[in-house]
Amino acid sequence: MEKKDLAQMVDHTQLRAYAVTEDFEKLCKEAADYGFKMVAINSYPVKLCSELLKGTGVHVGAAIGFPLGQTTIENKVHETKQAIEEGADEIDYVINIGRLKEKDYDYIEREMAEIVKACKEKNVLSKVIFENCYLTDEEKVKVSEIAVKVKPDFIKTSTGFGTGGATLEDVKLMKSIVKDEVKVKAAGGIRDLDTFLAMMEAGAERIGTSAGIEIMNEFDKRNK
Q1: Catalytic residue among 76, 156, 175, 183
Q2: Counting Cβ atoms within 10 Å, is residue 181 exposed (0-12), middle (13-18) or buried (19+)?
Q3: Which helix (H) or strand (E) holds 40?
Q4: Can 81 be counted among the known catalytic residues?
Q5: What is the C-alpha to C-alpha distance for residues 171 and 102, in angstroms, rounded to an integer?
């Protein structure tokens, strides 16, 4: 794999509550310089990042209902549509974990369907964040099965703000259910090249990380 191909799997992340304009300017410059696929940000700085990245080919990804998922479907859809209007061309939303725990699968499917519909209407990629550290394997399988039916572009392991991040076991499990119907994104705790490559081998086709530059530098050192 060439470095540019590796970079195109990276969602370059800045989701901290205390991030300021300077942080987003830095994030966007790094993403453009390294050829990363996307910047992963909360919905508020979407307009700024969209303007900074105009013409670079780097996507702007808005996190919706982040990081807890505990807002209504209506709020998530509104946040999604507003982010798209302001320049987001990818959406990563967090499911309502409580409703999943209550086995309200109809709610989880309706939430997914409405957000995916809002994205598809504007030709925007959609990603569904499970937050696997709080889920049983049965729950992970159930949401994966719903995703096969609804067809978001990706299902995603984690926010990076829970009690745990991506694991190889979770990526393999999710991939075993969705197969080639939906892609898998691994995020949370991926900070070195070996972990990055292992997630790819397990089936992940996009990696969310705030350590993208370090990983690219590690790749350079290895391939001198």
Answers
A1: 156
A2: exposed
A3: strand 38-42
A4: no
A5: 24
In the structure encoding, which two tokens stand for residue 176, read together?
Answer: 């075993």
Q: Residue 162 and residue 140: Cα distance in Å, rounded? A: 15
DSSP label at residue 215: H
Asked if 210 and 14 count as a contact pair (C-beta separation under 8 A), the reply is yes
Task: Choose, from 37, 81, 127, 185, the residue flagged as catalytic.
Answer: 185
Active site residue 153: no
From 89, 92, 153, 170, active-site residue: 92
- Write the pLDDT tens digit of every residue in 169-222: 999 999 999 999 999 999 999 999 999 999 999 999 999 999 999 999 999 999
**Is residue 179 within 8 Å of residue 153, measured between CB atoms?**
no
Q: pLDDT (tens digit, 9 = 90+) per residue, 15-33? A: 999 999 999 999 999 999 9
Question: CA angle at residue 128 from 75 to 145, to 5 degrees?
Answer: 120
**Sign of the C-alpha dihedral computed for residues 49, 55, 56 and 57 taken in this order:** positive
Give phi and psi for 181, each to the nearest 5. -75, -35
Q: Cα–Cα distance between 71 and 94 in angstroms, integer?
A: 9
Question: What pLDDT is stored for residue 224 in this prediction?
Answer: 84
Give yes or no: 5 in active site: no
Q: Has this prediction a pTM greater than 0.85?
A: yes
Mean pLDDT value across residues 56-61: 98
